Amino acid sequence: xxxxxxxxxxxxxxxxxxxxxxxxxxxxxxxxxxxxxxxxxxxxxxxxxxxxxxxxxxxxxxxxxxxxx
Length: 69
Known about the structure:
- This protein has 3 helices and no strands.
- By secondary structure, it is an all-alpha fold.
- The chain has one domain (about 5-65).
- Helix 1 runs antiparallel to helix 3 (about 45-65).
């Protein structure tokens, strides 16, 4: 297995973990109150979702298409 694919798998796993933390943060009482008052999540929670999503997509692309010969 090539190092690029290993990096892709690592990014995929890290992205899933970060998305899980974002989901946990969005379920917190203070986060729900903030969303109810403002209609959006806090910046910290949004960065979890954005960062996790980018890591998952990058990891998936590297795993599927990385280092083809």
